[in-house]
Amino acid sequence: MYSVYIHVPFCMKRCGYCDFNTYTAHDLGGGASRENYANLAVREMALVRQWQESQGICEPPAATVFFGGGTPTILPAHDLVRMLHAVRDIWGLEPDAEVTAEANPDTVDDRYIAELKDGGFTRISFGMQSAVPSVLATLDRTHTPANVEAGVAAARHYGLRSSVDLIYGTPHESEDDWRMSIRTALSLGVTHVSAYALTVEPHTWMGRRIAGGKLAGPSDDDQAAKYRIADDMFSRAGLRWYEISNWAAAGDESRHNLGYWHNADWAGIGPGAHSHYNAARLRAWDIAHPKRWAEAMDAEAVPWQGSEKASDSEDLEERIMLGLRIRDGLKISEISRLAGRQPVEGCIDSLIGDGLITYDPSRSAVVPTVRGRLLNDLVIGKLFEAYGL
Ligand SMILES: C[S@@+](CC[C@H](N)C(=O)[O-])C[C@H]1O[C@@H](n2cnc3c(N)ncnc32)[C@H](O)[C@@H]1O
Ligand SMILES: C[S@@+](CC[C@H](N)C(=O)[O-])C[C@H]1O[C@@H](n2cnc3c(N)ncnc32)[C@H](O)[C@@H]1O
Ligand code: SF4
């Protein structure tokens, strides 16, 4: 499967917890302004396609396209549509391609959503984060719960699928606050939810306040309890987990997300975007600063900061880590074939005995339990040991 990720590195305001590659300035120099962004992204697509052809790499058409950020919806809808049409012109799109835009709830109105729909988008991922005003304030969010409700309703009206992103474990968020956010997300009628444990990034405003003792950091126990609450409430509502942080009604899983965990091929377009070519085992990442990224394209070359080929053991490690994040699980027979050996005797049985994984013999797959999802690093470490990695 082939996918395209397009990064839009602009936000109205930097949220205090966020360490993604995004900027609040309108113009970052070198032509990298909000106004000129679509032109630059289209230019990169052409350079990437030239490079792919020179390498005989990648199998278009694109099955999924994902606009992430930053805030893609900070740009006019016609810019997003123009970039999508460039993807279609350069690589082609499968007839039922999944095309997602991430949207901050206070950046879209009915007209904007209608333009996305007309332009070929099929899905919107709203950055809801919480339904509780005090939690939204701690997260420095600018939107209100009403913005989320209106956005999801408009998406439904125009026939787009919606997902919401939630964050749990924000300082001062109670378990009842978290239940309220989940209940609200479910009451919107969305059939896909991503719920992320708040990660304290050291170089952010929130990270500095926590390090300086001005704000209490999240606790592992609190986040683990909230993960269980989420898994329980989503499952009861018919949304099954399909990846550690993602729940969906059957058939509403995001194919783009699944592509990442199934080790598919994708081209990353935009500052800091990552690309991944499975057969060549190649990973590449774009220059992160938009000005230097834009200037690098003046040399008619892909604007990469670096690239590397994964070794046999790195490839195996990556497959193990990805497989242990998804409900499809890790295919032991496939890993053993690639590793050229069977797992050390007793390793898998002891993980089953500890309630961390289950084993599905019909598919030779190990699947993490809720406990195993919470202790994912431990399970990964044990599987590495099992294969002598
Ligand atoms: C990079 S943002 C882009 C989407 C959009 N700008 C927004 O915030 O609504 C994608 C998602 O990453 C998650 N995220 C960002 N920083 C995080 C952090 N420090 N811990 C947990 N989740 C985070 C948020 O849930 C957010 O919706
Ligand atoms: C993992 S996606 C969230 C998906 C969303 N919850 C959904 O289900 O549609 C969140 C963020 O990851 C980052 N991201 C995703 N793919 C990327 C890539 N290929 N290169 C760089 N960043 C990427 C972007 O910042 C994006 O906003
Ligand atoms: S969380 Fe979203 S809106 Fe906030 S700074 Fe990060 S990318 Fe921008």
TrEMBL record:
Native source organism of the sequence: Scardovia wiggsiae F0424
BP-aspect Gene Ontology terms: porphyrin-containing compound biosynthetic process
NCBIfam families: hemN_rel
Family: Belongs to the anaerobic coproporphyrinogen-III oxidase family. HemW subfamily.
Residues annotated as domain Radical SAM core: 1-240
GO cellular component, one term: cytoplasm
Keywords assigned: 4Fe-4S, Chaperone, Cytoplasm, Heme, Iron, Iron-sulfur, Metal-binding, S-adenosyl-L-methionine
SMART domains assigned: Elp3
Function (record text): Probably acts as a heme chaperone, transferring heme to an unknown acceptor. Binds one molecule of heme per monomer, possibly covalently. Binds 1 [4Fe-4S] cluster. The cluster is coordinated with 3 cysteines and an exchangeable S-adenosyl-L-methionine.
UniProt xrefs under Pfam families: HemN_C, Radical_SAM
Record's protein name: Heme chaperone HemW
Primary localisation category: cytoplasm
Listed Gene3D superfamilies: tm_1862 like domain
Upper classification of the organism: Bacteria, Bacillati, Actinomycetota, Actinomycetes, Bifidobacteriales
Listed InterPro entries: Coproporphyrinogen-III_oxidase (IPR034505), Elp3/MiaA/NifB-like_rSAM (IPR006638), HemN_C (IPR010723), HemW-like (IPR004559), rSAM (IPR007197), rSAM_horseshoe (IPR023404), rSAM_sf (IPR058240)
Lineage: superkingdom: Bacteria
Subcellular location: Cytoplasm
GO terms assigned for molecular function: 4 iron, 4 sulfur cluster binding; coproporphyrinogen oxidase activity; metal ion binding
